[in-house]
């Protein structure tokens, strides 16, 4: 007789996995036929079958249960992958596929999906006391920015890709600092250290195939030990002053050189103009004397007198003084037309009370005798 037959043990039925205590003895494992029969009766009661268990009812109940279970299993397999993510699918614990963003389906209890963000820029920092090539100790800080390039390799090539990248960054940074001097790490070699560190990190990532891509490496700071920090600060300040002075000198040079070049060009042009003017004037005078030479040779005395008179005319025409011969007698009336024509000039001397005209300064000048000297070669008289 089955353990859960009606009326057994005083009508106290146990659940399929319970124990019926019969006189202190434990019952053996439950009968599977009875378990399925009981489940069929329960589902049959839900769907309107209340006449007790039967073979047809049990089959129908099992079918309904199977359909419901299949529907629940199918619906539970739908999932969504974000736009910036990729889904890594494992089937029975082994890599199967990488799915793209959108609505996807997986076999529940068979497939396992892990979404990985491949667009987010991640960051990690590395810092510590490091020994330089010249046996000095510096405090170095560096920040590395990276992202996931291959989700499968990121998850399963190494145990922890982020931790492995942190260790690779620390190792690469220590190697680069160890090949640099303290002066380079603090001042001039910061850009080179940044470049070499990124190259070393890329090489390590390539060897370990981590599925990561380094976007940027920032060399944040490098500080000397506190005991010598003040001295190094003075060195850095002096170098910054040197760079500033050089830039100021270059700016001053760029401002002065064009002006000096312009002035030099102007002076050179003025000199060339003056040279051409003097040369042309000299050539004109030479040409004038060459034209005058035949006349002088034809009539020397007449030519000298004419030159003298023309010269005196030019000289007297440029002066305001009136010169008369002392041999002449009588009063000379002079009307200063130049002062009357030009109102800006005023007479500086008082009026003559005797003649009523403006007073003028008179000088007596004796005519300069013209002398000639004979030429030694031809016997002709030379020019004055």
TrEMBL record:
Membrane protein topology class: Single-pass membrane protein
Domain of life the protein comes from: Bacteria
Predominant place of localization: membrane
One Pfam family matching this protein: HflK_N
Bias kind Polar residues: ranges: 345-357
UniProt xrefs under SUPFAM superfamilies: Band 7/SPFH domain
Transmembrane segments: 59-81
Key words, A-Z: Hydrolase, Membrane, Protease, Transmembrane, Transmembrane helix
Region (Disordered): 1-33, 344-384
SMART domains assigned to the protein according to its UniProt record, in alphabetical order: PHB (SM00244)
Segments of skewed composition (Basic and acidic residues): 11-25
Listed GO MF terms: peptidase activity
One cellular component term from this protein's GO annotations in UniProt: membrane
Family matches, as InterPro entries: Band7/mec-2_domain, Band_7, Band_7/SPFH_dom_sf, HflK, Membrane_HflK_N, Stomatin_HflK_fam
Keyword Membrane: yes
Compartmental location: Membrane
Listed Low complexity bias regions: 365-376
Domain Band: 76-236
BP terms from Gene Ontology: proteolysis
Known function: HflC and HflK could encode or regulate a protease.
Oligomeric and partner information: HflC and HflK may interact to form a multimeric complex.
Family the entry assigns: Belongs to the band 7/mec-2 family. HflK subfamily.
Protein name: Protein HflK
Organism expressing this protein natively: Photobacterium aphoticum
């Amino acid at each position: 007789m089955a353990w859960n037959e009606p009326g057994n043990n005083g009508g106290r039925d146990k659940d399929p996995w319970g124990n019926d205590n019969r006189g202190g003895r434990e019952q053996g494992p439950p009968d599977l036929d009875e378990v399925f029969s009981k489940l069929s009766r329960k589902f049959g009661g839900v769907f309107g079958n209340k006449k007790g268990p039967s073979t047809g009812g049990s089959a129908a109940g099992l079918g309904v249960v199977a359909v419901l279970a299949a529907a629940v299993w199918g619906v539970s397999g739908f999932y969504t992958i974000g736009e910036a993510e990729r889904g890594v699918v494992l089937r029975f614990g082994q890599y199967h596929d990488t799915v793209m963003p959108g609505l996807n389906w997986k076999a529940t209890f068979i497939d396992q999906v892990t979404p990985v963000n491949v667009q987010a820029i991640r960051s990690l920092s590395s810092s510590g006391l490091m020994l330089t090539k010249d046996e000095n100790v510096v405090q170095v800080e560096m920040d590395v920015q990276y992202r996931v390039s291959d989700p499968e390799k990121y998850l399963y090539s190494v145990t922890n890709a982020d931790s492995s990248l942190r260790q690779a960054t620390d190792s690469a940074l220590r190697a680069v600092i160890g090949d640099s001097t303290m002066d380079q790490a603090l001042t001039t070699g910061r850009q080179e250290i940044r470049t070499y560190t990124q190259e070393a990190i890329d090489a390590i990532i390539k060897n370990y195939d981590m599925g990561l891509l380094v976007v940027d490496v920032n060399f944040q700071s490098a500080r000397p030990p506190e005991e010598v920090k003040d001295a190094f600060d003075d060195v850095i300040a002096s170098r910054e002053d040197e760079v500033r002075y050089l830039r100021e000198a270059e700016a001053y040079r760029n401002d002065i050189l064009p002006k000096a070049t312009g002035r030099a060009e102007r002076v050179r042009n003025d000199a060339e103009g003056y040279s051409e003017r003097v040369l042309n004037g000299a050539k004109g005078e030479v040409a004038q004397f060459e034209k005058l030479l035949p006349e002088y040779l034809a009539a020397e005395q007449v030519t000298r007198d004419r030159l003298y008179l023309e010269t005196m005319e030019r000289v007297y025409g440029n002066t305001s003084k009136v010169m008369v011969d002392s041999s002449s007698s009588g009063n000379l009336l002079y009307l200063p037309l130049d002062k009357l024509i030009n109102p800006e000039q005023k007479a500086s001397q008082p009026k003559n009370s005797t003649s009523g005209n403006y007073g003028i300064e008179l000088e007596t000048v004796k005519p300069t005798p013209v002398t000639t000297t004979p030429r030694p070669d031809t016997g002709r008289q030379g020019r004055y």
